[in-house]
Amino acid sequence: MKTLIMLALLGTVLAIAGCTEPGHYPVSNQECGPEDPVKDMDVNDCGSPLV
Q1: Residue 34 zone, left/alpha/beta (φ > 0; ψ -120 to 50; rest)
Q2: First and final CA of the chain: distance in angstroms?
Q3: 51: pLDDT confidence band, cut at 50, 70 and 90?
């Protein structure tokens, strides 16, 4: 029963965190812009530092 409640709470938190206005980041709620540093990111930037 506790596992079911924990999963329901986790799903609710994730659903609420994903709700944001278009053009804004969901976690920080900052507005997306043309000078965002994430536009220059490559898939290799997301790898583990141990690899």
Answers
A1: alpha
A2: 39
A3: low
